[in-house]
Design a protein that fits this description.
The complex is a heterodimer. Chain A has a two-stranded antiparallel ribbon. By secondary structure, chain A is mostly helical. In chain A, helix 1 packs parallel to helix 19, helix 7 packs across helix 24 and helix 10 runs antiparallel to helix 24. Chain A is built from 24 helices and 2 strands. Chain B is an all-alpha fold. Chain B is elongated and about 80 Å long. The chains are: A mainly alpha, B mainly alpha.
Chain lengths: 587, 206
């Protein structure tokens, strides 16, 4: 499959098959975890480690396949496995809401929407590779961690030891927090309150909001991001130390709210919806600001495609614009068919839903990729909620159609951030971007099919072949439950559109400040609880201080392997603990 | 001026966000059967918080413009000071100086010496990525201001091609795929040469 005469193994049959098998197993397992616990997992690190064991250990050593399990071949394996698995959280956060709502839906529209989203996510994000990875130099901390695993055979024993030290620390902290020896979050502000449940007023909300997550992966992401991630931490400080007390001081929360209720009213009623708006406005303004570079990137793709026709093997570093356009048109037609089927053939509604769905999908994909690139955190569920809100408005509250488009958006945005993270890994190990893009595109249909099938299977496992998940069952489906509540809220006119618009204006104005990506970072900080931003910010500050004190080389030699160890250690331990808990029937 | 811009921007951001977050209750909607519509929500919020919100936005815009001007002025002061300092490299020439350092690392690497010199070659490639490449990327914002985004994008595309070539050569050495090392190093050298050409063309213009 190699494009050159080189014997260096990259996009091979073995890598594709192993990636598909790992991706399929992870998708089914992670759908179950998503319905049980309400969060999604990325399988990149697991796939990379297993890839070494199977491709190198079995392929090269046991079967004698020369050169099997090369760094770039294993990268294709993890690209495919994680690419397939992106559908698990995309589908789990959205589709079950339709079943929980008891809506009369057409299964083919859901499957088609998920497939269209899966392909569209890849084709809309590829032209942005240059902007995000080469121009903005987004860090993608998990991408760096996976690259560190892939590079480990040649990184030298000292770096391997540092990776191991980070890994062991993260495993220890994760185990200690899981078994409640350490708290998951240090609620620092509450130490200063006599009775946290009675806390009120501006001082009370500052104390209630000020907390520090003990997640080592979060701290590691901050270490890898350094100075570039600082606006995210400052955004958190602005949200919880300035805006929150201001809102409470002005009396814009229910007078009787204290303690946890006060925190919930400020976070859920004010900060989170404004944060979503800021994310949207920041991303839109970012597109406008980056227009010259985006234009250059598209011209570059066209020029490379022309050069490739002349036989220059080095010219085609990315998928050609023809393939991307074909994918884009095909996915749009898919969404249009979904809209036509879902609206009983109403052409005007269908076109507006398909166009708005495509535009929103591209924008949400950019937001998620940029947020994950800068902080490793993805505001997926918030953007899915907005997608469904827009679609409900455009389709006169046609719930099955709106949720189907929500499935497409959720799957697509996950594809965007996964593809970009994989391309970052590839950049660091010298992989061919085109081969990675091709690999992910080839298998984009697999994840949605498995995820939708697993959801239906679990639903049918309930009494009388239905109600296998939801409140009161062993699979509470928390994210889908939130979407169900939101759909009911929108239908009754309770969506905070005013906050979204105000936030979007602020996000647009943030783009005027001479720091790229500021709107997305500040928006994400408002969208999240402060314990995450604070933990991440301490990581950024520690990285900056250490680099200044110990010099540039310290970052690459020490910080990167240790921080990668933190991320890998926490991811693998959490996954193992989750599997053990589920296997033992616990929750 | 830069500090003033920052201060105005932050005050504006705090004000706009604070009033943007104002929660409002819509007593009666204008939709069917008194249902609350999106425009009901927006107009009720705007009546309650619109003016201070717009004031905050205006401060943000003003602060952003002032900070941008202040940063450009501060950059010029640094450049003038560097120009007056004997022996120092003016900041506008620093990228080319770093490219020259990268060339001194890349040029002597000879794939024909493999597998004998594999460890030494991998170490040199590590050094390339960890030092001059990292230093070069630290100048990103300054180069964008100096070259403009479109020219920077063209230059950094070639530069990234160099990075990928060097990284691939490193991976191929570790994997003992010796026939891949030479072409990867060639790609890296070509990328660096093209990046240099863009920078030199811009330098000649100014």
């Amino acid at each position: 499959m190699s494009a050159t005469a080189s014997t260096y193994r990259e996009l091979t049959f073995a890598a594709v098959i192993l990636g598909v098998i790992q991706g399929a197993v992870m998708t089914a397992a992670f759908v179950y975890i998503g319905l049980k616990l309400g969060f999604g997992l990325s399988g990149s690190t697991v796939a990379a480690i297993l890839g070494f064991a199977l491709l190198r250990g079995v392929g090269r050593n046991a079967l004698g396949i020369k050169g099997c399990g090369s760094i770039v071949e294993n990268n294709i394996n993890q690209t495919i496995a994680s690419g397939i698995n992106t559908a698990s959280s995309g589908v789990t956060f959205t589709f079950p809401a339709l079943l929980l709502l008891g809506s009369d839906y057409d299964l083919s529209t859901v499957i088609l929407a998920a497939l269209a989203g899966s392909f569209m996510g890849i084709v809309v994000i590829v032209p942005l590779r240059k902007q995000m990875l080469e121009i903005e130099r987004l860090k993608f901390p998990s991408g760096i961690a996976v690259a560190t695993i892939l590079k480990s055979p040649g990184a030298g024993s000292a770096k391997a030891v540092r990776l191991g030290v980070g890994f062991v620390i993260a495993v220890a902290v994760t185990l200690l927090t899981n078994f409640h020896v350490l708290p998951e979050t240090l609620e620092i502000g509450k130490w200063f309150l006599a009775d946290p449940e009675q806390a009120s007023g501006p001082g009370g909300i500052v104390a209630l909001g000020t907390a520090l997550s003990l997640s080592m992966a979060n701290f590691g992401a901050g270490l890898l991001s350094g100075k570039g991630g600082l606006p995210f931490a400052l955004g958190g400080a602005l949200a919880w130390w300035v805006i929150a007390p201001f809102v409470v001081g002005q009396g814009w929360v229910p007078a009787e709210a204290t303690g946890g209720d006060l925190w919930g009213a400020v976070y859920g009623g004010s900060l989170r919806p404004v944060g979503i708006g800021v994310l949207i406005g920041g991303a839109l303004a970012g597109v406008v600001a980056a227009y010259p570079a985006l234009k250059g990137a598209i011209k570059g793709l066209q020029a490379a495609a022309k050069l490739a026709k002349t036989g220059d093997p080095n010219a085609a570093e990315e998928l050609s614009p023809k393939v991307l356009s074909f994918g884009m048109v095909g996915s749009f037609i898919g969404l249009l068919v979904v809209a036509l089927l879902g609206s009983d053939g109403a052409i005007g509604t269908s076109i507006s839903v398909a166009v708005a769905g495509t535009v929103w999908l591209a924008l949400a994909g950019m937001i998620v990729a940029q947020a994950a690139g800068a902080t490793d955190i993805s505001p997926l569920s918030g953007l899915a909620l907005i997608a469904v809100t827009i679609m409900l408005a455009l389709s006169a509250n046609n719930v099955p159609l709106a949720v189907a488009i929500g499935v497409a958006v959720c799957v697509a945005t996950n594809q965007c951030s996964d593809m970009m993270g994989d391309l970052k890994t590839g950049h660091l190990i010298g992989a061919s971007p085109r081969k990675q893009q091709l690999a992910q595109l080839m298998v984009a249909w697999i994840g949605p099919a498995i995820a939708v099938g697993t959801v239906l299977l679990l639903w049918a496992s309930g009494p009388n072949g239905a109600n296998g998940f939801g409140e009161g069952t062993p699979l509470p489906a928390p994210q889908a439950g939130a979407l169900q509540g939101m759909v009911q809220g929108v239908v009754s006119g309770n969506a905070p559109i005013d906050k979204y618009i105000a936030g979007a204006s602020i996000g647009g104005a943030l783009a005027l400040f001479p720091i790229s990506g500021l709107g997305v970072l500040v928006g994400l900080a408002m969208y999240l609880p402060f314990d995450i931003t604070l933990g991440y910010g301490i990581g950024c500050l520690a990285s900056m201080g250490l680099e200044k004190w110990k010099g540039r080389r310290f970052y690459g030699d020490i910080l990167v392997p240790v921080a990668a160890g933190f991320i890998i250690g926490e991811a693998l331990t959490s996954l193992t603990l989750t599997m053990i808990t589920l296997a033992s029937g616990g929750s | 001026m830069k500090a003033l811009g920052f201060a105005l921007f932050l005050v504006g951001l705090a004000a706009a966000s604070g009033y943007g977050a104002r929660k409002v209750e819509v007593a009666e909607g204008s939709g069917e059967n008194g249902a609350v519509t999106a425009s009901d929500r927006v107009s009720t919020w705007f009546d309650a918080a619109g003016l201070p919100f717009l004031g905050g936005l205006a401060l943000m815009i003003l602060g952003g413009v002032v900070a941008r001007r202040g940063m450009t002025a501060a950059q010029q002061v640094v450049e003038r000071a560097q120009a007056q300092q004997a022996g120092a490299t003016p900041s506008k020439d620093r990228p080319l100086e770093l490219i020259a350092r990268m060339e001194t690392i890349l040029e002597p690497l000879d794939a024909a010496k493999l597998p004998g010199d594999a460890k030494g070659m991998a170490k040199k490639l590590d050094e390339l990525i960890d030092e001059p490449v990292a230093d070069f990327l630290e100048l990103r914002e300054a180069m964008i201001r100096q070259l403009g985004l479109a020219t920077f994008a063209e230059m950094i595309g070639h530069f990234a091609s160099m990075e990928r070539g060097a990284a691939r050569a490193w991976s191929a050495i570790v994997d003992e795929a010796w026939d891949e090392v030479g072409p990867s190093l060639e790609r890296a050298r070509a990328g660096l040469k093209n990046a240099r050409a863009v920078l030199e063309a811009e330098s000649a213009k100014s």
